[in-house]
Each structure stands twice: as C-alpha cells, then as structure tokens.
Amino acid sequence: xxxxxxxxxxxxxxxxxxxxxxxxxxxxxxxxxxxxxxxxxxxxxxxxxxxxxxxxxxxxxxxxxxxxxxxxxxxxxxxxxxxxxxxxxxxxxxxxxxxxxxxxxxxxxxxxxxxxxxxxxxxxxxxxxxxxxxxxxxxxxxxxxxxxxxxxxxxxxxxxxxxxxxxxxxxxxxxxxxxxxxxxxxxxxxxxxxxxxxxxxxxxxxxxxxxxxxxxxxxxxxxxxxxxxxxxxxxxxxxxxxxxxxxxxxxxxxxxxxxxxxxxxxxxxxxxxxxxxxxxxxxxxxxxxxxxxxxxxxxxxxxxxxxxxxxxxxxxxxxxxxxxxxxxxxxxxxxxxxxxxxxxxxxxxxxxxxxxxxxxxxxxxxxxxxxxxxxxxxxxxxxxxxxxxxxxxxxxxxxxxxxxxxxxxxxxxxxxxxxxxxxxxxxxxxxxxxxxxxxxxxxxxxxxxxxxxxxxxxxxxxxxxxxxxxxxxxxxxxxxxxxxxxxxxxxxxxxxxxxxx
Length: 501
Fold this sequence. Notes:
This protein is α+β, with helices and mostly antiparallel strands. Helix content is 29%, strand content 29%. It is built from 10 helices and 29 strands. The strands form 9 sheets. A 4-stranded antiparallel beta sheet has the order 3-29-28-27. Strands 4-5-6-7 form a 4-stranded antiparallel beta sheet, with no helix packed on it. Helix 5 (380-393) runs antiparallel to helix 6 and helix 7 (415-428) packs antiparallel against helix 8. It is elongated.
C-alpha cells in the first residue's frame, strides 16, 4: 500500500511538472525550458536524467545567407552536410553546421535540355549516398526534382498518368526518400493511400505502406450495417479513410513512417520492409506520451501527433511530436530512451516543430515558425545509455551489462536499464537474476524466457534427487497398493468366516 501511494504521488508530481514546466530540476538548472522525465513500468511519468541538452540555435542569419522563411525539412548527407528545404525562400541550402558555413544555395537547376528551372516552395529534401543525388519535393511546382550535386537535373517526376492515381487530385509532394536501388518514395499532402512509389526511371509503381483504419466501435458497427445496405446506400454513405503518412526515413532495407493524426493510434509509427509489410504491426507499441497532455491556457487535452521520424546511425528511432514539441527517442526494440524538447520560447523549445535529424552525438530540430534549427548535445548520461544500447544492438549482451549497471547507479528509476540488465543476465545464463530484473521492468517476455531457463536448470541440477523421489514415490504407491489389496482380502476372509458362524 505504501509503495502504491509513493507511485501515485510521484505520478501526480511529474504530471504537474509536465503541465506547468514549473519544477526545478537538473535539466532546468542547466538552462532547458522543460522538465526531463521518462516513464516507469506502471506507465507513470517520473523525473529522469536528460539524454540531451539544448546547446544552441542556428538561423539563416548565422550562416550569412539571410533569414530562413518557413523551412519545412532538412537532411544530413553522408559527409555531414545539412541540406535545408527553405520553403518560403524557394531554395535548398547545403550547410556545414559544425562550422556555420554554407557550401551551396540551390535556387535554380539546369534541366536536361539546357533550360533553367526555379524551385517554388520546396518542402522536402533527401540526399542519396549511393547515387550522389539530391531529391527535392518541389511542392508548388507539383514535381519531384532529382539533381546531381552541381544542380543538373537528372529526372523530373510529375503527376503520374495512371488509373491507379486519382486524376482529380493534385500532385503535392511533401517528403521524399530513395532506396539503394534508386526507387523513389513520395509523401503527398492530399493522399492517404500511402507513399507514391516510382521506379528509378520515374515510372509510377503504385502506392506503398498505406496506414490501416483503426477498428473503433463506430467503424465496426458501420461495417456490419453495410452488410444489409443496398448498393445505392453503400455508394452514398460516408467512407472511413486511414490517416496519411506525414514523414518517413530510410534505414538499410527498411522505411520508417509516421503519421500526425492525433485521433488514430494505429500505425503511428511503422517499420516497412521491401514488400510494404509493417514489422511493428503485431506488437503492442505506443509512441509519444502515454497520457494526453493538458494545456491549461487552452483548456484542452492534446494527444501525440508525430510529424517526422529519424533513424540514427546506431539504430535509435527519433519521433518528433508536433503537439508537445518533444522528441521521443526509442531503441531498435522500441523501448523508450529519452524525451527531449518542449513547446516553449526559450532555446530547446519550439513553436512549430517541423523536422528532426540526428548526426553523431547531436539531435537537430527544425522549427518552421521560429525559422531556426535547435542543436541538442548528448549528455554524459545519454552517452552511457547509448553505449549500452549499441552493444546490445550489436549482440554484445554481456558486454552491455556494465554500462547498464552504470545507468542504474545514476538513475535507479530508468526502466530501459532494467530491461537491458535482464536481457544480459538471460544471455549469460543467470536466469534467477534475469527474472529479478525483468520483474522490476515488467518485461513479461524476458521473464517468461528466464523462467523457462531456470526451470530447465533446476531440473538438470536436481535430476538425481527428482528421479530418486519419483522412484520412491512409485515404490511407495506400489507397496500401498499391495497393502490395500492384502487388507481387502483379509477383510473379505473375516467377513466370510463371520457369515459362516
């Protein structure tokens, strides 16, 4: 009862901190305009050490090219250059943000026929390391431009002339990525049937990775009602459509997508293989704050709304929540690591969070209202966590045990560390220890595996004793059977003798 009361008090305290940002913490003391927190095994928000801290903001003026105007997207290439889709200024900027210098400003491009073409409100940019090409979602020109680094257009993708693509709809590219084979994936602002997929030569291949419709009670009831409707009524009734993809990133053979719908929990974040199958589909995962956030100034509850996603070099997944201005970072197993950022005016807070990127030990968040990029540096605590996660992801489970234990020494409430220790001990064969830490983390899968291992271990260690006990039991049962048989025979004999008398 006392532990439950403590949990309730901690949850209420943390929730109050999230709503008002009024508590003083290590994060706040270092200048962050928000309280660092995480979630325990019961799903309660609790104070936690920060994995990242705001370092500085970067603007177009800092780069010497004039202020950005409603920038919509950015992307780091393999050499560490940051390509920024400066939407309002009709340009793409390639910058060395480490040295605050600009390498190239793309206002216009040279078409294959030698003519010049200009950008018009580009909202998405991607750079392929394999092809050495820039992919630009040139929104108001209703096209995707594919250019070399010198500004020579290699291919222009426009609205496909296909029966699969609704010709009544405009072609409004918002985001773009390309795989190693050169296939191009485009998020369209007015399409909810997935990303438009194009072959390397620009041929339209169809749609990829459509979200599912969340099976709410209303939708299920409407489905059954439709079974008894006439064809005319079916044609006239309002259709339920899934939420569209908002942002995506590519990592090896997988494409990660997110949706900004605040009303649909299905397919908030997906990991798609080449066939478009969601690897996360059969798992119970939740991204963003576990509970809706209350805004006292508007007297409203806000649910997570993921506008962009980034997969870091170490496999960590960064999800940007527009509602709260926070970056939720997860490991490859979708275990929550850190929560960074907030909706605030100070450095580290955002008015209109638009995109997130990672490079090295830093996180970058683009704000299309402040027209700036906020740089977050990794803390010493974050470094230890990421070291443990990297070892774990690479299969060095036992080697990750030391860093996980160091994490617990620094923050005894850090749930992911308990999961890490439980996994390491499971691999090490310490099933009893693994069960202990898995229970503390409420990690049912790990606990079940450790329990099975412990059971096999117990049977192996005590096989002779168990076998002897079984043998003794069998002999005892046999002796008891013989005794009962002999006793019944004796009783029958006595009964016959009595009857004869």
